[in-house]
Sequence to fold (331 residues):
Amino acid sequence: MRGMFLALSTAFAIGLAMPATAQTVGFGDAIKILGASCGKDIETYCKSANLANNEIGKCLDKNQSKISAQCNADRVKVAALLEARFAAQAAAPKICARDAAQKCKGVKAGSGYILRCLLKAQRTVSDKCNEAIDLAGYR
Amino acid sequence: MKIMPFLAAAGVAALLLQVPASAQTKLSRNEIIQSLQGAQNKVDISTDELRKQALENIQKYPGDNASQALPLAAKLAQLRQFVVEITFDFDSARIRPESYETVGIMADALHTPYLLGQKFFVVGHTDAKGDREYNLKLSQRRADAIRDALITTFRVPPEMLEAVGLGEEQLRDPAHPDSEVNRRVQLINVGY
Fold:
């Protein structure tokens, strides 16, 4: 059982190292880790920091010698998870550009119209584009 | 013992590898999307007008609690919307760590093509305890804090969100004005 967990956490670590091709997680699931692992330290050391403008990140960074080892490990992990999802979302329209030109002719640009068209056209869209849409968390 | 939380986190990630789109928590991204999507044309309501009406409601109908609904309340109620609960520090706009996930899930929903590019009001409400005008200001600061977190930490396009606080002027349960069910944040789709 433990071996399986370790194998999975290794797969997870590799995922972090290759955000462009590996699975990504949603913002909710990523930031939940920060709340769980750093909640206590945030309440102790970051009483005037809010979840915006990297205030929490900066505060934890400043107090890294005082916060728990778990929080120190996970704050880095969470930042990487968020970045991986941002990167996947930025990449999706580019990776899907060709599919969009073929399958979504005449669809209005912007406001998610083309991505919605690509979601609907899932069966005829290229594997690469479908994968990019999955990684962006758009499905 | 020390290794347990990491293993738990890895377990969550492992689960996601298998079922990326399914709901992992009580609050689900898809539930938010389903409640909010489908708005058609832009609705003619502004946050400035809402703020003005909330303040006028206090001035015109003074008293401990609001006795009248806002003139725009009926129009707002017709729009696609979703209610979330986010906890803050007492008398403060600081989002508590246990609510980070909720804000993250809101961001997950807003980033999807189903909602992307539409405009949403983030509407903050308090319960009826305390001074009405104070509550109005506090709820505005809290709505602002949620918008700030969404547009900075989670990079939701800023033009998609406007924050407004309505204090205790629009209670969810007017029969129990002090009840905590009144403390809430609404996301309201006001169209393209």
